[in-house]
Write a structure and sequence with these properties.
The chain is mainly α and 611 residues long. Helices cover 59% and strands 4% of the residues.
């Protein structure tokens, strides 16, 4: 080939690359997403008002109408990959619009700072002060929970010099929007572009959404036999390691299915030795990628042990959603089609067996964990497997329809009877239905916010969380009421006594303190949300023993030297007889002026600072 041939082919290569649906999706998403994030601010409507709530619907309707117009304008021979890529980019940007609109007027992310989201904010706040993968409350202890998402939020907070709890909401939005984009980009390598466009999971938590968006196509593209060839071992290993560091649960629930799939692929492989070597490389790269999280965590368990208490919570989901495909909903119907398709096409379609292995593996994990739960009380969080099963069957339903549709059309229709733009119109309708469902699930209600449950409540709670100074967000509804935890007064008093740069080891009856401030905590409040590396039961026993010390001098000396270090600041809930932390009761007489500075703060909060 001459240099002139190379110069002639280069523009063609560039044009082919730009026309690839994954590239078009990215090029569309990059400029559209900032506009989507800014639009709610420009409109400046309360998300609890009808005008504010329907803003994403109006924008989505315009996009859907434009898509239908294009579908009608172009002939049947028009290639659908390019418009599918543009549609995927616009859909991902629209998701950002819908989520940003729900949070307009509040600095908090979904669910505010209550429960799991408060602990996620605490982890992000911890990582704004350190890059070490530490527990979000008990500083210096390696984290058990996969840290990648809060670590990125925390480091971004430090870089932007913005409080992590303020960054978390936008991080949730961009992560979920990016998950839609990633889903399409990864699946376009495995299935036709329109099918990749609609094979999108319904998001709940941002880091779980993006982890699952990568995990499923990663398994199929790494351990299966995709028509276009498996992923190269280096990116496959990196993706696997990132999934582990983002949300380990999907790997655990799918492990049995992955092993079976790898064995089946090995049996039918033309070069078994090469396939085994490929898997070894993938596993090694994945382990290296996730080592910054796994090594400190694993070493701590080996040398110091752990107390697993986080899977003792009797969650209501333990007895629900065992078979999500039986639900009498459009999604349930799609999942039923998916389950039937996995069984029917397990020999005819390359994707059916890998997805069937993952579904069966998740159910096997659930069965084994259920038996263990009956004996030990530990759930292994098996009830969360429904999140993966739901998405797997939905994807299988889409792929089944795409696989069966051409044959059905050939059987029941002729070329002349097929409407123009049928494929693009069908995709547009599916996107419209998915988008409306998504918007309705995450937009705060315009009436009776206090009586609404489910995911819509998460958007409402973002508007009811008081700021550190007690002020409510701009559009806070009357219900539900979230009690103010007086963080700003606490910080002011502690800095007056210990100095502005103080980072005291703190015992707090409310975990929201750690969502705002990177102070090291002594113990988490919620036992069933504590990492095993923190030894919650032992810390609780040490705290109970401390509270039982009768004399003030001995109490102060013991508080300075407990088994797990000193307690510098006590933040307790005051009632008529005692000052309490969770179920541990202290006596006011233990905190004498000779050893503690004591202040009474709003909402029955008492602050005691050890000299």
């Amino acid at each position: 080939m001459t240099q002139s041939d190379v110069r002639t082919d280069a523009p063609k290569t560039v044009r082919r690359s730009v026309r690839h649906p994954a590239v078009l999706a990215l090029l569309t998403w990059l400029p559209a997403t900032p506009v989507a994030m800014l639009l709610p601010t420009l409109a400046d409507r309360s998300p609890f008002s009808p005008q504010g709530a329907v803003l994403p619907v109006g924008a989505g309707g315009l996009l859907l109408a434009a898509g239908l117009a294009l579908a009608a304008a172009f002939p049947r021979r028009w290639h659908t990959d390019a418009p599918a890529g543009v549609a995927a980019g616009l859909l991902a940007a629209w998701v950002a619009l819908a989520l940003r609109n729900s949070l307009h007027g509040t600095p908090f992310g979904f669910a505010g700072l209550l429960g799991d989201e408060g602990r996620m904010s605490a982890m992000a706040t911890r990582y704004s002060a350190t890059a070490f993968p530490s527990d979000g409350i008990v500083a210096g202890v390696p984290t058990e929970y996969p840290p990648l998402f809060p670590w990125v939020v925390g480091r971004a907070s430090a870089l932007l010099d913005v409080d992590a709890w303020r960054v978390l909401g936008d991080a949730q939005i961009l992560t979920i929007s990016g998950a839609v984009l990633l889903t399409f980009m990864l699946w376009t390598r495995l299935v036709p572009a329109p099918a990749a466009l609609v094979a999108v999971a319904d998001p709940r938590k941002a880091h779980e959404v993006v982890a699952l968006a990568v995990f499923i196509p990663w398994v199929l593209g790494t351990f299966g036999r995709p028509p276009r060839g498996r992923l190269h071992w280096l990116p496959a290993g990196v993706l696997g390691g990132l999934v582990v560091a983002t949300y380990l649960g999907f790997v655990l629930w799918g492990a049995a299915g992955i092993v079976v799939l790898a064995a089946l692929t090995w049996r039918t492989s033309a070069n078994r030795r090469r396939y085994v070597l490929y898997l070894v490389k993938v596993v090694v790269v994945a382990a290296i990628t996730a080592s910054w999280y796994l090594v400190p965590y694993g070493w701590t368990l080996l040398t110091d042990g752990g107390q697993m208490v986080s899977d003792l919570f009797p969650a209501p989901a333990i007895t629900s959603r065992l078979f999500p495909f039986l639900a009498a909903t459009p999604l349930g119907l799609l999942q039923t089609i998916g389950l039937l398709g996995l069984v029917w096409y397990r020999r005819a379609a390359w994707w059916a067996t890998p997805l069937l292995c993952l579904v069966a593996g998740a159910y096997l994990y659930r069965a084994v964990a259920t038996a263990r739960y009956l004996v030990t009380g530990h759930t292994g969080l098996y009830y969360h497997t429904d999140r993966m099963i739901t998405v797997l069957l939905a994807i299988a339903g889409v792929l089944t329809i795409v696989h069966a549709a051409p044959g059905l059309i050939r059987r029941f229709a002729t070329r002349d009877t097929i409407p123009r733009g049928l494929t693009a119109t069908t995709v547009a309708v599916l996107i419209g239905w998915c988008g409306f469902t998504y918007w309705h699930a995450w937009t705060p209600p315009t009436t009776d916010p206090g009586g609404v449950g489910g995911t819509r409540r998460y958007a409402t709670l973002a508007h009811t969380e008081p700021r550190p100074n007690g002020a409510l967000p701009r559009y806070a509804p009357d219900e539900p009421v979230t009690t103010w935890f007086p963080v700003k007064p606490i910080r002011t008093v502690v800095e007056d006594v210990l100095g502005r740069d103080a980072a005291p080891r703190t015992l707090s009856y409310d975990e929201r303190l750690f969502a705002y401030l990177p102070w090291p905590g002594y113990i988490a409040v919620d036992r069933t949300a504590a990492s095993s590396t923190t030894h919650w039961d032992d810390r609780h026993a040490a705290l109970a023993a401390l509270a039982a010390i009768p004399t003030p001098d001995a109490f102060a000396a013991a508080a300075a030297n407990t088994r797990y270090g000193a307690i510098d600041v006590f933040i307790l809930h005051a009632d008529s007889t005692a000052w309490t932390w969770n179920d541990v009761h202290f006596r006011p007489a233990q905190f004498t002026p000779a050893h503690f500075t004591v202040r009474t703060l709003p909402n029955n909060t008492v602050l005691a600072i050890r000299h």
